[in-house]
Design brief:
Elements (H helix, E strand, L loop, with lengths): L2 H13 L16 E5 L2 E2 L3 E3 L5 E2 L1 H12 L7 E5 L5 H6 L5 E2 L7 H4 L2 E10 L1 E6 L16 E4 L3 H10 L1 H7 E4 L5 H6 L5 E5 H10 L4 E3 L7 E8 L3 H16 L2 H10 L16
Parallel strand pairs: 1-5, 1-6, 9-10, 9-11
Antiparallel strand pairs: 2-3, 3-4, 7-13, 8-11, 8-12
Helix pairs in contact: 2-9, 2-10, 5-6
Bound molecules: glutamic acid.
Length: 271
């Protein structure tokens, strides 16, 4: 973490009347801070003991190690879909690993290493709802998505502004969509299949993953826009993770049954 970033966090924490977490006050600048999701089982989930678990977490650990940071120098910071760009731009984190799709729009603001995983936008319904079987079926349905996420935007672009105001609910994170689906306040959650599979696995029998993906989501590691050096170091770390079996191990450890859809790692794209 660069000194300026640490100072900004300290200042922000002071303003908010909070204490900086993770003992930032002493030598916070030698930490490697990774923005991560906290409410996505299998990808990035905060555990009751405060630790983090998931595929993105394993990717972060591997990268940190390859970049020369000991375990106790790695710090996770909760990121939401909507603040990933600003976290990177303002130096609140060193990198973001948070189901972060590489898109042309985002490439104008941040740099991306990777991809390290490729998935697609899909749909989660209640288990007993058989009326939704593909994206077209969402046209007359209430859908939940996360603010700042590319998933609700894709639907709004497809169905238009009227649909958006009538049928789309946006929450801070996908975890917050889940109770809305259970309570029938919405009919579906639509985002990456990886995220939805994690929810379905966590509550067996409650939900149905439709399984008709309608986009290609390439997960990248977000870095500062012109930090080509860090980007290349991370690309090399990812290639090593792909080759030495650690990637597959992380897939199997975190995705369970769903891991069978991820047999081979993607190819890193140097742009
Ligand atoms: N991968 C998509 C995105 O980056 C959806 C998941 C998310 O918002 O984290 O927007």
């Amino acid at each position: 973490m660069r000194r300026i970033g640490a100072m900004m966090i300290a200042a922000a924490a002071a303003v908010a009347g909070l204490t900086a977490c993770g003992g930032d006050s002493s030598g916070g600048d030698d930490k490697f801070v990774v923005g991560i999701k906290i409410d996505q089982p299998g990808l990035g989930q905060k555990q009751p003991d405060g630790s983090f678990k998931g595929f993105d977490v394993d990717v972060a650990r591997y990268i940190a190690k390859e970049l020369g940071y000991a375990d106790d120098k790695l710090e996770f910071k909760e990121a939401q879909s909507a603040n990933r760009e600003s976290f990177i731009q303002q130096g609140q984190v060193d990198i973001v690993i948070a189901t972060y799709s590489i898109t042309d729009d985002r490439k104008k603001k941040v740099g991306f290493a990777g991809p390290y995983l490729v998935t697609g936008q899909d749909i989660l319904t209640r288990a007993d709802d058989t009326s939704i079987n593909n994206v077209e079926d969402l046209k007359g349905k209430k859908v939940c998505g996360a603010q700042g996420s590319s998933s609700p935007k894709r639907l709004a672009d497809k169905f238009g502004a009227e649909w958006k105001s009538q049928f789309l609910t946006e929450q801070q994170g996908y975890g917050a969509c889940l109770p809305l689906l259970e309570n029938k306040q919405v009919d579906a959650i639509s985002t990456d299949a990886t995220i939805l599979a994690g929810f379905a696995t966590q509550k067996p029998g409650k939900f149905r993953l439709v399984g008709q993906p309608f986009s290609e989501e390439k997960y990248g590691v977000g870095v500062k826009l012109d930090d080509k050096d860090t980007r290349e170091k991370i690309n090399k770390a990812l290639e090593k993770m792909f080759q030495d079996g650690s990637w597959k191990k992380a897939v199997d450890a975190n995705f369970g049954e769903f891991g069978k859809f991820f047999t081979t790692p993607p190819t890193v794209e140097r742009y």
